[in-house]
Amino acid sequence: MDEIGVLPRFTGTLCHDHWKPYYRYGCTHALCNAHHLRELTRAWEQDGQKWAQQMKKLLETINDKVQEAGGILDAGTSEKYRRKYRKVLETAEIECPPPDRPKKRENEVE
């Protein structure tokens, strides 16, 4: 990635699939929503995670509403979708909780 000399000098917003090597470049990062949708589809179809299907539908709905509104939602509509988004995340935490953190050894400092 460095040899062609593009990314080391890039100063804009790099939209990508969350591949860790991209994060070593000192630019602004944005994650690709097409990749998000594919990951949510996989989580639903292969793992049966219902929250993932709900999130995919919500993100697609929000995208449609933004397009219909000419590219930006008014504050009230935006807040409505923000609340729905957070509610799906709460469901995800219940259905698919994060793994337990490993216990620290007695001599480890936090």
Give a short synopsis of this structure.
The protein has 110 residues and is mainly α.
What would your notes on this structure say?
- The chain has 110 residues and is mainly alpha-helical.
- It folds into 2 domains: 1-31, no CATH class; 33-95, no CATH class.
- It is 50% helix and 7% strand.
- The chain is built from 3 helices and 2 strands.
- It has helices at 33-47, 50-68, 75-95, and strands at 13-16, 28-31.
- It has a two-stranded parallel sheet.
- Helix 1 (33-47) packs antiparallel against helix 2 and helix 2 packs antiparallel against helix 3.
- The protein is extended, with a radius of gyration of 19 Å.
Shape: extended
**Which regions are unreliable across 5 or more consecutive residues at pLDDT < 50?**
none
Structural class: mainly alpha
What does the main sheet amount to?
2 strands, parallel
Distance between the termini: 36 Å
Tally the helices: what do you get?
Answer: 3
Helix fraction bin = 40-55%
Count of distinct structural domains: 2
Radius of gyration: 19 Å
Strand arrangement, major sheet: 1-2
**Topology as H/E string?**
EEHHH
Q: Please report the total strand number as a whole number.
A: 2
Q: Quick check: average pLDDT?
A: 91
Strand content: 5-15%
List keywords for this structure.
7% strand, 2 domains, 2 strands, mainly alpha, 110 residues
SSE layout and pairing:
Layout: E1 13-16, E2 28-31, H1 33-47, H2 50-68, H3 75-95
Parallel strand pairs: 1-2
